[in-house]
Amino acid sequence: MVDPHECPVCYQVFEGAIYQCSPEGGHVVCSSCFGKLKECPVCREEFSIPKIRCRALEHQLDSQEFECQFKNEGCDYKCKRALVSSHINSCGFNPKFTNLCNLLGWNECKFLLGACSKTQIIQHFKEKHNLDMDFDAVFSLDLQSIVNSIKDDKRNGCLALLFASSSEDMSPVFLLVGKVNDSIGFVTFLCIKIWESEGISQAYKVDFSIRRKHSLLLNWTLNVYTLQEAKHTLEMCPVNIPKGILENGLFGSNKMEV
Ligand SMILES: [Zn+2]
Ligand SMILES: [Zn+2]
Ligand SMILES: [Zn+2]
Ligand SMILES: [Zn+2]
């Protein structure tokens, strides 16, 4: 069964001009597929010259509203046919994207991870959310101020953006997240890989430690989570650290490796 809204070759909604094979055949394809094909995909006749545009179907589709393909995921957006793909590429219900900002408690933020460049991501977290940066993946933070800042902001508490290497453009970007659970008095820390070079999928671990003066109080290792995992792990709090331990300690991470 052919869906009259979609090109039978690429299965995309007809967003632009529509062409038909011949006056008799009447089979239609989108302008992009028409440019790539020599013959009609249905009746195998060569396309007529000059090409025949199918204005009747264009007009019919112009009067219709199109639902987002992620309707079942919860999107109730409707638009004209020309806007369908641009919406898909910015739809918050597209499973390819993650609105990590929302998950972290910045509820107004519409920024989607999964489709943007490393530079855009860094710029976003730096300028929109005032995050600290650390370029060596070895850092030390004053825990009391972390605990305070997480509490004040009423969000999950993004702490810092981390880079495996400052010199290498393709090195992944990590986000360090701290969550305070005030009712039970625990803090949990997570590290999420928010960008990595296309085609690469490398697993990382992060080493956390809490020091007081010069002694090591606590040391633990967690997997670095991917964006897809982050949706679930943000609710999970894998390692809970009693707030009391943090009060006079220094918190840090000193290793990030495979
Ligand atoms: Zn097509
Ligand atoms: Zn045909
Ligand atoms: Zn949508
Ligand atoms: Zn944001």
Automatic annotation (TrEMBL):
Highest taxon, organism lineage: Eukaryota
Q: Does the keyword ATP-binding apply?
A: no
- Ranges for the RING-type domain? 7-44
Classification via PROSITE patterns: ZF_RING_2
Which keywords does this chain's UniProt record carry?
Metal-binding, Zinc, Zinc-finger
| Alphabetical list of Pfam families matching this protein | Sina_RING
Asked if the Swiss-Prot or TrEMBL record annotates the protein with the keyword Acetylation, the reply is no
The name this protein goes by in its record: RING-type domain-containing protein
| Organism (species) | Orchesella dallaii
Please name the taxonomic classification of the source: Eukaryota, Metazoa, Ecdysozoa, Arthropoda, Hexapoda
